C-alpha cells in the first residue's frame, strides 16, 4: 500500500466552503439516543412477540441483526436507519492514517487504489470490492486509521457496522442528529467503542446558487419558514450576508490494543462543499501543529484525535457568536435610537434561538466531560508503563480542561447576548407602555373638557325648587359650564408635578399661581413685539409734526 503526503488540495478544499447551501437540521429524537435504553425503537403500547424465527444472514448484508439480535426488522424500520441513507449518490470514503515515523506522528493519506489516492467511491453494483478492501491488513506503524464517510448508503452502513461491530445507535443517532455519547463493548486491558454525536452551530456566507438536491435527513427545505411557529432548527440569516445553521459531528471510535479506527459520518453534501473531505483537511492541519505534535509524542492514546476534532466545533461556535453579537448590536441600535417597535418579533425569535443554543452548548460540555472520564482501556495493557499511563491521563485532563474553559466562555457570551436581548425587549415594551399611557392621558384630558358640561346639564335637569324656578336659562348654563371647566383645568394642572407650564419639583405655591405664569409667558412676547412698533409710530408722528 502506497502512502501519499501531497497537500495541494487542502487549502483549495477549505476555500470552497462558502458556496455550499445550508441544510435544515432534523429534530433530534432523544428517546433512542443510547444503547443503555432497554427498549430501543419499540412500540410499548403493542404486545411484541419475543420468539423471533427470522433466519439471520450472517454476512454483512444481515446487519444489524447479524451482530445485534435484538435489532429486529421492525425496530430497524421504526428507526428509519436505512430509509435516511443516501439513495441518489454513491458513498465516498476519504481515508487518512496517523502513523508513527521516527519519533514524529505523521498524518498521511493512504493510496487505496483508484484515480484519486485516499478516496474510494463505493459503486452501487460491485459492492464486494469495498468489503474486500476493509479486510486488508494494515501496516504496523499505523496508530489510527480514520474513515470519513460522505453520502452514507445502505450497503456501506451494513459493511462498516459488520466489520467494526458498530452499535446501530451510532447510525440512528447520526442520521437523526441526536446528541449522544456512550461507551460500549468494554474489554478491560484490550479496548472499547466510544461514540459522540454533537450538533453545533456553523456560519457561512449566503449562497446565490440555485437550490440543490435535498438530503434525506432534511425534514423540509432550508428556507421554508412558517408564520406561526418558531423553527429553531432552520437556518437563520443575520442580515449582513451570513447564515447561521446547524452541522453535526458524528464520530465512532474503535479503541484497541492492536488497531484503532475512527469512523465519522457526514450528512449529504450540498453545492461545492464536501464535508468529509473538508474535515480530513482540517485533521491534516492538526498534524502540522507543534503543540499537538508534542501531545501525540507524549501519549499513544488515540483519544486525543477525538479531542482535537472537537476544537473544530468550538471554532465554528466562536465565529457564529461573533456574527450574532454584531446582529444583536444592530437590533439594539434600531430599537433604542429609531424606536422601531416592529422588531419585537425578531427579538423574540432570536431569544428563542439563544435558549436552544444553551442546550447545545451544554451537550458540548457533557461530550468533553465524557471523553475526560472515559479512559481508554487499551492504555491499561501491559505494553503501556505506569508512568506513560499516568502522564497520558494527566495530559488528557489538562486538554479537556482547556476545552471546557473555552466552552464556558462561549456559554457566558451566549448569556450576555441573551441578557442584552432581554434588556432591549424590556425597553421595547416600556416604549409601548409609554405610548399607551400617553393615549390614555389624551382621553383623560378629553373627558375633563366634557365633564363640567355634562355635570352642569345633570344639575340643571334636577327637579328641585332652587333650580326649577325659571332661572335655568341657556346663558346660566354656559356661565356655569365655563367656570367649572376653567376650575377643573386649573386644579388638574396644579396637581401635576411636571407639565408644559411648570418645571419638575415645583412647589405647591409655584404650581398654584400657574395662570399668572402662563399670562406672563403670553404677554412678554407680545410686549416685545408691540413696544417697538409703538415707539416707531410715535417717532413718525413727531417728525410729521
From TrEMBL:
The chain crosses the membrane at residues 443-462, 474-495. Residues 393-420 form a coiled coil. It is a multi-pass membrane protein. One of its GO terms (cellular component) is plasma membrane. Keywords: Cell membrane, Coiled coil, Membrane, Transmembrane, Transmembrane helix, Transport. This is Cora-like Mg2+ transporter protein-domain-containing protein. It comes from Suillus fuscotomentosus. Belongs to the CorA metal ion transporter (MIT) (TC 1.A.35) family. One of its GO terms (molecular function) is cobalt ion transmembrane transporter activity.
Amino acid at each position: 500500500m502506497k502512502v501519499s503526503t501531497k497537500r495541494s488540495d487542502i487549502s483549495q478544499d477549505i476555500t470552497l466552503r462558502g458556496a455550499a447551501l445550508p441544510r435544515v437540521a432534523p429534530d433530534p429524537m432523544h428517546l433512542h439516543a443510547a444503547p443503555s435504553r432497554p427498549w430501543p425503537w419499540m412500540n410499548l403500547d403493542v404486545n411484541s412477540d419475543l420468539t423471533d424465527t427470522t433466519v439471520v444472514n450472517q454476512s454483512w448484508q444481515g446487519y444489524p441483526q447479524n451482530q445485534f439480535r435484538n435489532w429486529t426488522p421492525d425496530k430497524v424500520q421504526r428507526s428509519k436507519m436505512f430509509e435516511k441513507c443516501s439513495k441518489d449518490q454513491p458513498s465516498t470514503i476519504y481515508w487518512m492514517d496517523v502513523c508513527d515515523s521516527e519519533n514524529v506522528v505523521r498524518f498521511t493519506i493512504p493510496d487505496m487504489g483508484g484515480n484519486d489516492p485516499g478516496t474510494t467511491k463505493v459503486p452501487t453494483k460491485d459492492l464486494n470490492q469495498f468489503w474486500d478492501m476493509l479486510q486488508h491488513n494494515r501496516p504496523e506503524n499505523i496508530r489510527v486509521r480514520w474513515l470519513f464517510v460522505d453520502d452514507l448508503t445502505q450497503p456501506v452502513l451494513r459493511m462498516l457496522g459488520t466489520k467494526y461491530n458498530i452499535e446501530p445507535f451510532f447510525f440512528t443517532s447520526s442520521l437523526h442528529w441526536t446528541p449522544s455519547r456512550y461507551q460500549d463493548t468494554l474489554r478491560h486491558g484490550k479496548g472499547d467503542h466510544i461514540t459522540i454525536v454533537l450538533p453545533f452551530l456553523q456560519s457561512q456566507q449566503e449562497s446565490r446558487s440555485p437550490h440543490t438536491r435535498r438530503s434525506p435527513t432534511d425534514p423540509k427545505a432550508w428556507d421554508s419558514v412558517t408564520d406561526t411557529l418558531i423553527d429553531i432548527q432552520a437556518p437563520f440569516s443575520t442580515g449582513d450576508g451570513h447564515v447561521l445553521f446547524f452541522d453535526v459531528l458524528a464520530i465512532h471510535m474503535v479503541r484497541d490494543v492492536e488497531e484503532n479506527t475512527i469512523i465519522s459520518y457526514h450528512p449529504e453534501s450540498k453545492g461545492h462543499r464536501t464535508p468529509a473531505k473538508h474535515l480530513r483537511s482540517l485533521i491534516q492541519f492538526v498534524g502540522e501543529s507543534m503543540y499537538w505534535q508534542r501531545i501525540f509524542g507524549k501519549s499513544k492514546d488515540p483519544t486525543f484525535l477525538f479531542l482535537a476534532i472537537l476544537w473544530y466545533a468550538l471554532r465554528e461556535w466562536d465565529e457564529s457568536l461573533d456574527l450574532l453579537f454584531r446582529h444583536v448590536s444592530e437590533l439594539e441600535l434600531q430599537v433604542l435610537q429609531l424606536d422601531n417597535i416592529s422588531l419585537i418579533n425578531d427579538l423574540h425569535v432570536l431569544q428563542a434561538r439563544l435558549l436552544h443554543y444553551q442546550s447545545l452548548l451544554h451537550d458540548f460540555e457533557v461530550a468533553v466531560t465524557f471523553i475526560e472520564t472515559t479512559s481508554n482501556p487499551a492504555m491499561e495493557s501491559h505494553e503501556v508503563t505506569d508512568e506513560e499511563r499516568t502522564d497520558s491521563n494527566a495530559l488528557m485532563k489538562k486538554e479537556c480542561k482547556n476545552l471546557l474553559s473555552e466552552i464556558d466562555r462561549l456559554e457566558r457570551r451566549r448569556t450576555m447576548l441573551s441578557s442584552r436581548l432581554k434588556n432591549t425587549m424590556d425597553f421595547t415594551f416600556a416604549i409601548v407602555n409609554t405610548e399607551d399611557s400617553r393615549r390614555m392621558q389624551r382621553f383623560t384630558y378629553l373627558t375633563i373638557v366634557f365633564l363640567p358640561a355634562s355635570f352642569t346639564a345633570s344639575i340643571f335637569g334636577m327637579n328641585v325648587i332652587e333650580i326649577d324656578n325659571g332661572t335655568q336659562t341657556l346663558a346660566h348654563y354656559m356661565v356655569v359650564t365655563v367656570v367649572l371647566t376653567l376650575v377643573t383645568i386649573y386644579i388638574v394642572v396644579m396637581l401635576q408635578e411636571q407639565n408644559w407650564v411648570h418645571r419638575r419639583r415645583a412647589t405647591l405655591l409655584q404650581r398654584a399661581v400657574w395662570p399668572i405664569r402662563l399670562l406672563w409667558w403670553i404677554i412678554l412676547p407680545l410686549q416685545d413685539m408691540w413696544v417697538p412698533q409703538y415707539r416707531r409710530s410715535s417717532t413718525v408722528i413727531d417728525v410729521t409734526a
